[in-house]
Amino acid sequence: AMGAKCAVINGVEAGVIGDVLSFFGAGPARSIEPVDHGISNRNYGVRTDRGEYVVRFLANRSTASVENDIAIQRQLRSAGVPAPEYLRSVIGPYIYEGGSGLRAVISPRLSGITPIQITPVLSFDIGRHLGLFHTSVASLPRPNNASLMNPEANGFEKYARQHQHRYESFRKIDLTS
Question: Distance between CA 99 and CA 79 in Å, rounded?
Answer without folding.
Answer: 38
